[in-house]
Fold:
Amino acid sequence: MALELEGTLRQKLGVQQGTSARGQWAKQEFILEFPDGNFTSQACFTAFGQDKVAELAKYQVGDRIKVSFNIRGREYNGRWYTDLQIWRISPAGQATAAPAAPVSAPVSSAPVPDIPAPTLDDMPADTPEEDLPF
Structure:
């Protein structure tokens, strides 16, 4: 599942490097602050691989960025861990693909009639055969 999120780069953690059976690896975690309703939230993302770490190095704390990421979960010793692994970083507001034109209903220029809202007296009377059990 690929997701996207726009926000402000709040913190870059240190680059971690090592060697595995597959060779050299590098990763860097960073904190993204993003709007969440009326409040802001923060999440820790992982840039895994030399190319992603180099891509993250282009941005400074305080920059507005857009991250495309996947959610990864794994179990270790009976505990579950979740990673938000990025696969693309771009400046915020930069379109990645041309969005489709929104489909909208035709706009009428006719004036809207001034009709009062219905009241309880306007509602039909309840009858036993139309009584719903909920």
Notes: The CA atoms of residues 31 and 44 lie 5 Å apart. The radius of gyration is 26 Å.
